[in-house]
What does this fold into?
Amino acid sequence: MTLSTKALACGLTLSIVLHTPLALAKTPVATGTGGAVATVSEQASAAAMTILNKGGNAIDAAVAAAATLGVTDPFSCGIGGGGFMMIYLAKDRRVITIDHRETAPAAFTPATFQINGKPIDFETAVASGAAVGVPGTVRGWHEALERYGTMSFKQVLTPAIDVATNGFTVNETFSRLAAQNENKFRLFSTASELYLRNGKAIPPGTLLRNPGMARAYREIAARGQKAFYEGPMARAIVAAVNQPPLAAGANVRPGKMTLADLANYEARIRGPVHSTYRGYDIYGLSLPSSGGVTVAEALNILEGYDLKAMPRAQAEHLYLEASRLAFADRNAYLADPEYVEAPVAGLLSKQFAARRRALIDSEHAALKVAAGDPYGFQEDQSIPLRPQPVRPAQLQQESAHTTHLTVSDKDGNIVAYTFTIESWGGSGIVVPGYGFLLNNEMTDFDFSGPHPNVPEAGKRPRSSMAPTIALANGKPAFTVGSPGGSTIITTVLQTIINYVDFGMPMDEAVNAPRLSERNGAATSTEPGFTGSARAKELERFGHRWEAEPEEIGAANALVFNPDGTVTAVSEGHRHGVGSALVQRRGH
It folds into this structure.
């Protein structure tokens, strides 16, 4: 392995013991000449590197890393959820996406999360069978491997099976997340048994094995995606949703999932959203993720300013205002394209962006803005319906807990992959006998309408995932993506601005403090920001900050350097420090 000599950012010490054949120091930055990977877990990065070294391509390696993340980071992702995989195919020089977002069971209605016409409490909705969408992850992996990979499920799942069987050492981050979920996990006997000890989170240093998840992966390795969507595992999933495995005295809302819901699940192969920014071709996700459209609209707005020539506070004020406008439009129009005719072409129009840009006051924050009217900028003027945009309202709560990974191979194929089980710990339901948590993705719907993102049978809830691949002069330049619910969009946007406009190296662009403006009453910040000189400069523009700061995102990126090398970049301080690896020359 050729690893960069950069020290761990912020002088953080390692907190995880590596249980893989690759005994590598955990580093968030690595540069080399072959394939590369960046994830939040060294076991997952090592799994990807193992597959690359065995001749697998980036798609094979991405599935191997994702499966391993399901073991080591089960509170944010896994086969009980769904996601979006973006792939650059070097031979064809094109970008495709695999949408394997969870879908609403057939029994869903717009009133599923209401009682007497009123939305139910969000946390009550989360910890329930009713919150569980039909998982799409395994079907997504199947499509990726069958269409674009070179290896079988049996080959790519082997590293994850090894980690689940032999165990890994629980670190501080894992234990902290388990502690945050103690109340939810106590509701369910299977979650309590796996992740709690005497009702408390398993402590750091614990060797955690998950034989149930190893069993699930072995069955998928043997029978492919049918092992998940038909047969004993499918029956176990449906039973867990409809009769959750409750602890004594617990009571939660059951779901209404059927075996037909699972058997009928389909992934979608979709084209990406394409936009341009300062000479780069930017490829993002299309609907039902709002990430690609919203990032592109905000970049289009910002392209009208020379940000690099401005004082930093002025440029950041414009970044926040562009985010505010783009989110107003996102919230008003975007949802599952199979249910809603969203004006995507209008939202992506440079002319529409110019009209939105004209609303920005260069000296004063708007605090709250209304959606624009993109219909006049649609390429297709024949759309018969011109619905009134949703008025600004309280920002729908959206869980900030997902994971992102990125992989490239020696042939130039690239994967940028974001997947999730929604909230930390998902619904809290661990499938009996199979060791994986089920998602609470249905709480990504708006609980009441009228709204394009209300629940409906078979519908995919709007997502904010935004894996992004950028090309320059027709060649890959960089990738970036992050977890973080609706803050994913601003994390990706801010990282692109840091890298492209402010000229930061990608590791500095990723590690820089984050601000997330989503057309709410106040801007989200990270700990240590409020009261800082930077905060005070922005306060002069009228910006306000949320009362409770928290860590925003855990990004991963790749940079394809002019000399032919690739640099993998993960977080230097968030989520316990990320893991970047590159191949050695010759593979």
